[in-house]
Amino acid sequence: MSRIAYVNGRYLPHRDAVIHVEDRGYQFADGVYEVCEVRGGRLVDARRHMERLVRSLGALQIALPMSLEALAIVLRETVRRNRVRNGIVYLQITRGVARRDHAFPQARTRPSIVAMARSFDLVQSEKIASEGIAVITVPENRWPRVDIKSVSLLPNVLAKQAAREKGAKEAWFVDRDGTVTEGSSSNAWIITKDGKVVTRPTNGSILRGITRTVLLEVLAAQGLALDERPFTVEEAHAAREAFITSASQIVMPVISIDGRPVANGAPGLLATALRREFHRHAELS
């Protein structure tokens, strides 16, 4: 079956899904995006994703191109037309098409909207989680507003490629203080030897991950101790467990950091349990 994409009001085969060469997302990365998990054909935590989308658009002064209700219809229809039962749906909104100029175009410029969906192999995903993943660390070199889910992702791309070249699945950014900020496409977590779950606070230095937000509710429901603070690479090396969270990976155990095993080098029991528990707390629509 040919994949279908939504582009500015039309559902098109991928081969015909194109944008204008002067779209500001293409020329300036002047836009934002969201990635929402699809589980059983339903959107996971769509409300929270739309709320974050509105915050990102507002930070860049891009107008919401249609109501949130209409956007939700577009996402669901994109999922339906691609027959995705389990996977992701991707939404991107840019400032639109205008003559190339760094300054904002005229106010009447219409934002551009693109949506795509694709399936994931749940069996393969669970196999990866059962084995755990390796991460590397790289210097933090992104712009300060990483709390905006912008399509400007070149440092993330380079970090992810560095990880792949070293046989790892993810890269953790490390700031000048030696503390982990987040992954190239995920939030970073550790579990200390005394059982505390540690992750960096959302104070502007990381993206407010939707999976991260839901997991905080899971931790509270389970009565687990949470410590929202920066942690160092050394702490991560000495941790009982480590894991990452994202819409596409949910809770993914980390078994090594920079080639050094975390604890016994196997997925941790708590991270594995949190992965199983996650969808009981997520919203489906």
Instruction: Give the DSSP E fraction (strand runs of 2 or more residues).
Output: 25-35%
Q: Give the termini separation.
A: 25 Å
Oligomer: single chain
What structural class results from the helix and strand content?
A: alpha+beta
User: Helicity level, as a percent range?
Assistant: 25-40%
Largest sheet geometry: 9 strands, mixed
Could you say which overall geometry the principal axes of the C-alpha atoms support?
Answer: globular
Description:
With 285 residues, the protein is of the alpha+beta class. The chain has 8 helices and 15 strands. It has helices at 24-28, 46-60, 68-81, 122-131, 154-165, 210-222, 233-237, 269-277, and strands at residues 4-7, 10-13, 31-39, 42-43, 87-94, 112-119, 133-139, 170-174, 180-183, 187-191, 197-199, 226-228, 241-246, 250-257, 260-261. The strands form 2 sheets. Strands 7, 8, 9, 10, 11, 12, 13, 14 and 15 form a 9-stranded mixed β-sheet that branches. Strands 2-1-6-5-3-4 form a 6-stranded antiparallel β-sheet. Strand 10 (187-191) and strand 11 (197-199) form a beta hairpin. The radius of gyration is 19 Å and the shape is globular. The relative contact order is 0.15. The mean pLDDT is 96.
Summary tags:
285 residues, alpha+beta, 9-stranded mixed sheet, 6-stranded antiparallel sheet, 8 helices, 15 strands, 27% strand
Secondary structure layout:
Elements (H helix, E strand, L loop, with lengths): L3 E4 L2 E4 L10 H5 L2 E9 L2 E2 L2 H15 L7 H14 L5 E8 L17 E8 L2 H10 L1 E7 L14 H12 L4 E5 L5 E4 L3 E5 L5 E3 L10 H13 L3 E3 L4 H5 L3 E6 L3 E8 L2 E2 L7 H9 L8
Parallel strand pairs: 7-8, 7-14, 11-12
Antiparallel strand pairs: 1-2, 1-6, 3-4, 3-5, 5-6, 8-9, 10-11, 10-13, 13-14, 14-15
